[in-house]
């Protein structure tokens, strides 16, 4: 008698860091309970809130979320967004999938189901152990969840060179497989970037696959207390970039290059070649040649890419 092969586990560890999130937390937690994919555990920590976020979360864990919420209490000090999620990634056990959650957004009921299905389908086209990262579009809303537009679609397939120029993996849409989680464990992001961009960079740098879902999977509130936020206006994004100027952006760019070069054991051969070429390209002609050699070292929009290339060519 032929033994039937066991179905792969679809269990998801959802990570949630709280910081003064009382205003919107209940709605987010309700959207977790409404998920069509119900095989999940919520791992959470409070990042030294001064409101009653912790008590609200504990009430949920003892009530509607009973039996599926685990508080991470190994560190009590304020770590900041990136530090808090890095600590959660280190603290949870090995699990087939890991998802990031934010305290103030709302998920579509099929969000986790869509993410796991897409990731499992991608896994069928890659060798076992390939790091995979799923991310998706969102509805951009005001604080009252009134939608003003969708986040922009991608114009180019994400890959490692592109990951150095721009983050397209919005944190609360991200799902990681176990191999991608292992890359992030005990490997916090550089000071300049958040956990979602770092997850995208590491997954792509290791030769993994980035899965981008064109469906909107969540309602992304834009309000006064967003850590990052996402404006739908290209003019406002361009103006904000110009105000920051090339120095801030290129400092982050080169810091990420160096941070990755410091861990060659995880890098794929194409990644290593590109990073070494960037590190050695210190003159205008050398950088111009590099841009021709690596055409996917670009941003999604033509205008944004033009600015990036000017900044890169003339940066010190």
Main traits of this protein?
316 residues; alpha/beta; 11 helices; 9 strands; 42% helix; globular
Summarize the structure.
With 316 residues, the protein is α/β, with parallel strands linked by helices.
Write up what this structure looks like.
The chain is an alpha/beta fold and 316 residues long. It has 11 helices and 9 strands. Strands 1, 2, 3, 4, 5, 6, 7, 8 and 9 form a 9-stranded mixed β-sheet that branches. The longest helix has 28 residues, at 234-261. It is globular and about 65 Å long. The N and C termini lie far apart (68 Å).
Write down the secondary-structure element order.
EHEHEHEEHEEHEHHEHHHH
Percentage of residues in strands: 15-25%
- Shape descriptor reads globular
> Please, how many helices?
11
Find the structural class using helix and strand composition: alpha/beta
Task: Give a topology summary.
Blueprint: E1 12-18, H1 22-33, E2 40-46, H2 53-62, E3 69-71, H3 80-91, E4 97-101, E5 106-107, H4 111-123, E6 132-141, E7 147-150, H5 160-163, E8 175-177, H6 178-184, H7 195-205, E9 209-221, H8 234-261, H9 269-280, H10 284-293, H11 302-314
Parallel strand pairs: 1-2, 1-4, 2-3, 6-9
Antiparallel strand pairs: 4-8, 5-9, 6-7, 6-8
Helix pairs in contact: 1-2, 6-7, 8-9, 8-11, 10-11
């Amino acid at each position: 008698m032929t033994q039937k092969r066991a179905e792969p586990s679809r269990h998801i560890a959802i990570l949630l860091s709280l910081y003064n999130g009382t205003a919107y937390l209940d709605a987010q937690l309700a959207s977790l309970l409404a998920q069509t994919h119900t095989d999940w555990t919520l791992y959470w920590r409070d990042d030294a809130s001064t409101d009653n976020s912790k008590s609200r979360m504990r009430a949920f864990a003892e009530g509607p979320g009973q039996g599926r919420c685990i508080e991470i209490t190994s560190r009590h000090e304020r770590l900041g967004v990136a530090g808090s999620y890095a600590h959660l990634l280190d603290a949870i056990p090995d699990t087939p999938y890991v998802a990031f959650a934010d305290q103030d957004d709302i998920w579509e009921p099929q969000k986790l189901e869509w993410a796991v299905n897409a990731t499992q389908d991608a896994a069928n086209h890659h060798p076992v152990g390939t790091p995979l990262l799923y991310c998706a579009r969102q509805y951009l809303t005001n604080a009252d969840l009134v939608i003003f537009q969708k986040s922009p679609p991608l114009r180019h397939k994400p890959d490692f060179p592109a990951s150095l120029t721009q983050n397209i993996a919005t944190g609360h849409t991200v799902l990681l497989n176990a191999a991608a989680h292992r890359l992030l464990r005990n490997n916090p992001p550089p000071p300049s970037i958040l956990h979602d961009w770092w997850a995208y960079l590491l997954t792509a740098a290791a030769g993994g696959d980035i899965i981008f879902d064109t469906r909107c999977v969540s309602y992304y509130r834009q309000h006064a207390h967003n850590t990052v936020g996402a404006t739908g206006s290209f003019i406002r994004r361009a103006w904000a970039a110009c105000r920051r100027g090339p120095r801030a952006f290129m400092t982050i760019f080169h810091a990420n290059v160096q941070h990755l070069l410091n861990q060659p054991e995880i890098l794929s051969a194409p990644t290593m070649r590109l990073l070494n070429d960037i590190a050695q390209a210190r003159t205008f002609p050398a950088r111009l040649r590099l841009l021709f050699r690596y055409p996917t070292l670009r941003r999604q929009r033509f205008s944004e890419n033009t600015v990036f290339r000017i900044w890169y060519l003339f940066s010190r």
